[in-house]
Amino acid sequence: MTRFELQSRNLASEHVAHSHDFHQLILATSGVTELAMEGQRERVTARRGCLIPSSRHHEYEGDGSNRTLVLDIPTAQLASLEKGDDIERLFDKPRFFTIPPALNQLTHALANQLEQCPGLQNEIAILLLRALTMYLQDEPASTVTQLGTRCVSERLDLERLDVWLDQHLADDIRVEQLAGLCALSPGHFHACFRELTGVTPLAYVQRRRLEHARTLARHSALSLGHIAMLVGFRDQGSFSRAYRRHFDIAPSSDR
């Protein structure tokens, strides 16, 4: 039977440099790990994963507060899997890749399942590999960074931007401010952001405002007018119209 080793770990804030004779998949559900491999350095976060083929030298340093799934995959084991050739192609080359919301949710769920039922690590590992294989087959090449190429969105840290946005939802948020947080020009930031997320920066901000508004509408006793103000709408009417367009339901009905 194919055996993998899957662990939910906290990668410490210490520098590690090594290689190993097995493939490795690294996915984070929280926190940040700086990882360098073959001349490219990126951050492994809930939105960015990494595939490390066997024998490839790499260096990493965690932030000490991350929650990271580390899957070790013996090279001889992949061929015994059903559709093993497809999964084996994941490790043709080292690469970083963007993690969409659906894959992020699956990673969270499987990390929780692993902690509750460590004896199922092999089944969880196979499910995770198959989901990743399907995702990377369907995704355009622009979402995957193969080492030796430059990722146009490499300076975008969506986790950092999300934290900043959540603190400023009531304010007037401009693209120039977001670009400045990433040390990019507004035009370059706009193009990179759209390539990475599939939406414009302002559409992303609007979506985040409305998602926070929905949480408040469903789980707080605040008036809709107060909620509208907290998430940056000038009045309750414009808030309600945007809410209905986005969720196909009025906020008063949703609560």
Automatic annotation (TrEMBL):
Claim: Transcription is one of the keywords in the record: yes
Keywords attached to this entry: DNA-binding, Transcription, Transcription regulation
Species, as recorded: Vreelandella nanhaiensis
Protein name: AraC family transcriptional regulator
HTH araC/xylS-type domain: residues covered: 159-255
Pfam families in alphabetical order: AraC_binding_2 (PF14525), HTH_18 (PF12833)
GO MF entries: DNA-binding transcription factor activity; sequence-specific DNA binding
Source species taxonomy: Bacteria, Pseudomonadati, Pseudomonadota, Gammaproteobacteria, Oceanospirillales
InterPro entries named among the record's database cross-references: AraC-bd_2, AraC_XylS_family_regulators, Homeodomain-like_sf, HTH-like, HTH_AraC, RmlC-like_jellyroll
